[in-house]
Amino acid sequence: MNIALVGIGKIAVDQHVPSINASSDWTLAATVSRSGTVDGVPAFTDFDQMLTERSDIPVVSLCLPPVPRYDYAAKAIAGGRHVMLEKPPGATLAEVQALDAMARDAGVTLFATWHSRMAKGVAPAKAWLADKQIEAAHISWKEDVRRWHPGQQWVFEPGGMGVFDPGSNALSIMTEILPQPVHLRQAELLFPSNCDTPIAAQLTWTGKVTGDFDWLQEGPQSWDITVETDAGTLALHDGGARLLINGQEVEAGADREYPALYDRMAELVETGKSDVDLSPMIHVADALTLGKRITVEAFHF
Ligand code: NAP
């Protein structure tokens, strides 16, 4: 199937283009970006023009930041295209629900992707936890924003979600693997004095589930989730790529998060289904609703 990639920025170049090129399901038939291009691929700067001129492209993958993404998704669906959304799927919950309804009415696929759910250890972690009693769990998601999002000012603007941009990856794993849902009881959010989104957060859910999210972590980076159960400890490291159960390595080797997302999109389009799970974003919205806000020193890239 022909596919168009929209928003040729960091994640499009790092992951989407190689995953599409490596797949036998997809042909990268066009890009849409105000500045980015991909060698050898017809490039548009105007999305409407691409939709009008390229009726041979039935699928659009949107790699834009969440705030501008809705308008593109709505236009694509109105134009009869199947749509794949980067995470987090939108700037608000209601706008993604609106897209879901529009896609249903138009009879096209909408896939709200959560790439971390495709990490190698996540499915076996979910399977192992399914019949366990969960006694406690902890998320430690600590990375250096300057290293992973160099100069991306949008993450600190309204709708950019701040530390919950990477933090939503942890929440997408948590909501996938825990056998029972949890809900937020308390949150502390650290807002730099010059930013509209938090740079760090500490969250406490029901069921003794806690989360520590920090975007100022220098040195070793951590993307870890540990779950204490009646049958011992499960630990996911490296964003879900490594799984240890009671200290024993269960899964190792190369990850294929984005290739797996494109496999899934091909399957959804073929079977005429959508996949839109907002549960990770509900926890972000709850944190921003319930959280105590603490102002900290200004942040500069
Ligand atoms: P980015 O590089 O800052 O932005 C992607 C592209 O979106 C830009 O190159 C830009 O292309 C376009 N864009 C930005 N603002 C726009 C606007 N207002 N209107 C139209 N186009 C706009 O961001 P990214 O890191 O690739 O992240 C994009 C999405 O992927 C985010 O939702 C993020 O959470 C997710 N993601 C990122 C990473 C990562 O490591 N960075 C990992 C996983 C997922 P043009 O200016 O050329 O049009």
Write the layout of secondary structure elements.
Elements: E1 2-6, H1 10-21, E2 27-32, E3 43-44, H2 47-53, E4 59-62, H3 66-78, E5 82-85, H4 93-106, E6 110-112, H5 122-129, E7 134-142, H6 145-148, H7 164-177, E8 184-192, E9 200-205, E10 209-214, E11 222-229, E12 232-237, E13 242-245, E14 248-251, H8 257-271, H9 279-290, E15 292-296
Parallel strand pairs: 1-2, 1-4, 2-3, 4-5, 5-6, 7-10, 8-15
Antiparallel strand pairs: 7-11, 8-9, 9-10, 11-12, 12-13, 13-14
Helix pairs in contact: 3-4, 7-9
Bound molecules: NADP nicotinamide-adenine-dinucleotide phosphate.
NADP nicotinamide-adenine-dinucleotide phosphate binds near residues 11 and 115.
Explain what this protein looks like in three dimensions.
With 301 residues, the protein is an alpha/beta fold. It is globular. It has helices at 10-21, 47-53, 66-78, 93-106, 122-129, 145-148, 164-177, 257-271, 279-290, and strands spanning 2-6, 27-32, 43-44, 59-62, 82-85, 110-112, 134-142, 184-192, 200-205, 209-214, 222-229, 232-237, 242-245, 248-251, 292-296. The protein folds into two domains: 2-113 and 258-276, NAD(P)-binding Rossmann-like Domain (Rossmann fold, 3-Layer(aba) Sandwich); 116-254 and 284-296, Dihydrodipicolinate Reductase, domain 2 (2-Layer Sandwich), CATH 3.30.360. A hairpin with a 2-residue loop joins strand 13 (242-245) and strand 14. It contains nine helices and 15 strands. It has a nine-stranded mixed beta sheet. The chain has a six-stranded parallel beta sheet with strand order 3-2-1-4-5-6, with helices on both faces. It binds NADP nicotinamide-adenine-dinucleotide phosphate (NAP). The site of NADP nicotinamide-adenine-dinucleotide phosphate has 22 residues, from helix 1 and helix 3.
